[in-house]
Amino acid sequence: MAENEDGQEKTEEATPKRQEEAREKGQVPRSKELTTMAMLLIASFALLMLGESMITQLGNIMSLGLDFEREKAFDHWAMLEVLQEGIYQGISLLLPFMLVMVITSIAAPAALGGWNFSTKALEFKFDKLNPLSGLKRIFAVRGLVELVKALAKFILIGSVGAWLLMGYFPELMGLGRESVEHALAHTGQILSHSFIVLSASLLVIAGIDVPFQLWEHSRNLKMTRQELKDENKNTEGKPEVKSRIRSMQREIAQRRMMSEVPKADVIITNPTHYAIALRYDAKTMAAPLVVAKGVELVASQIRTVAVANKVPLFEAPPLARALYYSTEIDQEVPAGLYLAVAQILAYVFQLKASVHGAPVPDRPGDIPVPEDYFQGPGHEKPADGDEQHPDSTTQGD
User: Which InterPro entries does its entry note (predicted)?
Assistant: First the structure.
């Protein structure tokens, strides 16, 4: 089990933040065996495809340097031109092959750990020059693994090479009986096929090394429980700061809620413990809307704002508690409370109309609240003496 410097076991998987920090430092999974295998395999196929044209161009370069008029041998400028032409043809000969190898050398490492252009990975570190640190790396588990991989590669490639030699032995012995041109072509064919097979044999080593590198990278990034707690604390902030943020959010939400109270049509109260502000517009709303609610001090503030803005207060303890626990702010009244709320709103609208000469309506006596809404803390069914009072509606003036 991996441990940190304090001796604590690293049992927790790395968080995305830890992984991102490791990537910024250049700590990404890499497999040298994958890169080596890819480069050798691509090189073998590239030589197989470009080999014939490369040999032809190489022959032309040799002819250019050896087959020329006698006079040119004594002309320095003419020989310089021959040299320049030979260099140009040599570059043209190697450029396609080198371009393929450069692309492979860049793409192969990125296939495992992705692209990583971290500047921190290029920083010079003096501890890498420490001989003791080097010895620790050699005799560590990773050094042992590298030794095992080197031996495995030697045994594998040696075995495949011996198998190829035994298979091509009759053909190799027969090359001396062939013409020079045919023997050279035959030798090139044997070498290219052998190169491909030897390169492909490294797939076995890469297939073992890649999962090991991914596992080791994940193991090295593991965290202790304390590191995980510290990261969460730094990411989310200290408890005091989070508490302060939540307090400010509540204050902002409460101020926003209080600004909606003057727009309400009625405030249903308990009368002192609960206050729920309702608004209803038959043209734009399908059901009455709860625009504000609160208990104790918040309920008192809602009532104060309502009185200051002449919003009617209606005392209905069971309905107030039912609305408080069953409905959130900016949410419509549940269907089970439609009848109770409709009676109160009808009464309030008629009461407002009486100011302009309409008859004063009778206050609704029994406000029906289904028993389903008397569940949980504060939802007890009201006692006989806990019903609304006949004179418990005020106009807020």
Answer: FlhB (IPR006136), T3SS_substrate_exporter (IPR006135), T3SS_substrate_exporter_C (IPR029025)
